[in-house]
Write a structure and sequence with these properties.
The chain has two domains: 206 residues, Clam (outer membrane lipoprotein receptor (LolB), chain A); 105 residues, Phosphorylase Kinase, domain 1, CATH 3.30.200. The chain is built from eight helices and 20 strands. Helix content is 23%, strand content 37%. It is of the alpha+beta class. The strands form three sheets. It has a twelve-stranded mixed sheet. The radius of gyration is 22 Å and the shape is globular. It starts with a helix and ends with a helix. Keywords: Signal.
């Protein structure tokens, strides 16, 4: 009897320790399988661990916390427009529900409901750190030349085939991205992002399923009906988009390339906001109102790692760089997965210091 109990208790650990079975699948084929898995229904429990410390102003504190802490999530996924993610913390849970029109966020402890659409400008949230969402995003624009196979691994008790992405852009601050894909369905089960100078033991971000079920969780699992007489708010992304759409100020003209990266065409994005690069190497330029820029400037200058020069003040936190540029038309925020040299070069281009 005792022996049987011991075996039952130790069985999950024994299964996780089994060697992974690899398969002779090429890197481009594995990428295609991963991207095609967006239609695979599933549910599970995942954790994301961020290793970035960002000294930012009050407006970006939730993003800084997300990228520097451990985030625990339960997910029920039926399609790209039908899913639910519960973010679990020591003080309670926050439910995020996606439907065809947008996203509901239900903060149970504070009885607050937030409704947000899908604007082109959006700050990262906890569901973006799921291994599925992050894996699909980072692999979506990868070139074949940037991809290679990595060793297989056991993730959430399943065989996962390894795929490595090494960005080709010289400006990139990311050394590599490793994605482990379920061998049966192509579903990304784990993603590890390593910055320049980092290591597997000290990644910038590591997110993985600890448990996953590949059955359809059913429509009831992701359905949300707002409780009556509750505090209903508008999502911060709508506020961000509206501020940018109406124009924070006149005279902001962004170039077609910045730091050697081509400008991206993001439908619906205001002309005063520029997104540059491809895949995992992205640089964004956003004009800021003076009040927001003052708070961010103070936060950056408090960091001992900040670098100040006539163009502005910049800081690198792992592979994520931030720079507040003092332009002729007002302050500009540069941020993205580029190194400090690229940030300084972009600032020189924008202020005319490079000419």
């Amino acid at each position: 009897m005792v022996t049987g109990v011991v075996l039952l208790v130790s069985l999950p650990a024994l299964v996780a320790a089994l060697p992974a079975t690899d398969a002779s699948v090429s890197a481009p084929e594995l990428r295609a399988q991963a991207l095609a898995s967006a239609g695979v229904a599933h549910s599970g429990y995942a954790q994301a661990a961020g290793g970035l410390s960002l000294p930012v102003g009050q407006q970006l504190t939730p993003v800084a916390d997300l990228l520097s802490d451990r985030t625990s999530m339960r997910t029920w996924y039926r399609s790209p427009q039908d899913w639910r993610v519960d973010v679990v913390s020591p003080t309670g849970e926050t439910g995020v529900y996606r439907d065809s029109a947008g996203v509901w966020t239900w903060e149970y402890e504070d009885a607050v409901v937030t409704r947000a659409g899908t604007p082109p400008l959006a700050l990262p949230t906890a569901p973006d750190l799921l291994p599925t969402a992050l894996g699909w995003r980072l692999l979506s624009e990868a070139d074949e030349a940037e991809l290679s196979r990595a060793p297989a691994a056991r993730v959430a008790g399943r065989d996962a085939l390894g795929l490595r992405l090494v960005p080709a852009a010289d400006a990139s601050s990311i050394a590599r991205v490793d994605v482990w894909v379920d061998s049966a369905t192509g579903l990304p089960l784990r993603v590890r992002v390593v910055g320049e100078g980092g290591s597997d033991a000290d990644p910038a971000l590591d997110t993985a399923f600890l448990d996953v079920d590949l059955a359809d969780p059913g429509a009831a699992a992701s359905r949300f009906t707002p409780p009556p007489a509750r505090d209903l708010r508008t999502g911060p992304d709508e506020q961000l988009y509206e501020a940018a759409r109406t124009g924070l100020r006149d005279g902001v003209v962004l170039p077609p390339t910045l730091a050697g990266l081509a400008r991206r065409d993001v439908p619906g994005t205001p002309a005063s906001v520029g997104a540059y690069g491809r895949g995992v190497t992205v640089l964004v330029a956003v004009p800021l109102p003076d009040r927001a820029a003052d708070g961010l400037r103070r936060a950056l200058r408090r960091s001992p790692d900040a670098v100040a020069d006539p163009a502005g003040v910049r800081l690198s936190a792992g592979p994520l760089g931030l720079m507040l540029v003092d332009g002729s038309t007002g302050p500009l925020l540069l941020t993205g997965t580029v190194d400090g040299e690229a940030l300084a070069g972009a600032a020189a281009e924008l202020t005319g210091g490079g000419r």
